[in-house]
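Most newcomers find our protein records easier to grasp once they have seen one. Nothing more is needed to start thinking about how sequence determines fold. Here is such a record, shown just as it appears in the course material:
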Amino acid sequence: MQPHPLGPVARSPADPCQAGAVDNPTSLAHRLRRLVRRAGVDVQRWPSPRDPATAHVRLLRDAGVTLVLDVGAAGGGYALTVRDRGHRGRIVSCEPLPDSYERLRVAAAADPDWEVRRTAVGATPGRATLHVAGNADSSSLLPMLDTHTEAAPHTATVGSVEVDVTTVDALLDEVARPTDAVLLKLDVQGAEAEVLDGASLDRLVGIHLEHSLVELYDGSVTFEPMHRRLLDAGFELVDLSPGFRDPRSGRLLQFDATYLRRPAGADVDG
């Protein structure tokens, strides 16, 4: 497996979610950092300006993002990475899988501006079946297809669990302040369209999500229609980075993309 350029921003099966020891909530470096934070001191690495995660946080800063809604948080890798690269706004992370949620809760415990919720996010509130993958991080509300398991056999579905489901709009009604500039981060393994169906997109200044070039989950929406949907909603593509590849062919199957609200009067470029 190859590491993702943004570290743990995506959680595809090709991504071991390793952006350095400081991003691992159980590592010695992370535990030491939590100790000194309690004394009022924050220790930061000095990242390269070419580091994709640093560039991602720069985009958040330039867009004025004050709240990240982190949907499909797994063990907190994305939030830890953006914190490490300098994001100081609030984070609300959602993760429905019980074991992953527990890792997330531990990771966020020392950060007063990082709230965690044990829930899935979809089009409507209620209950749903989460299909649990062998590597946990590829778990989805949608059934996994053979195109996924053939490229990454260790991700095959091993069970299921019933989970609570909320919507982006319901979450924002609870946690967003009137002046917040919100980035929606999605890592929901094919269920991006369902999450967006439950969101008023005009409440967002940005969206960070994982695009699929082929259908990997039954009912998922692939890159071209999803890209067009976001353009039509007033966003523009500002960054991308390769993610999950089929190791047999080298074909790129998924990549991460960041969209920001398009400036007024700018042309739509499809």
In short: The chain has a mean pLDDT of 87.
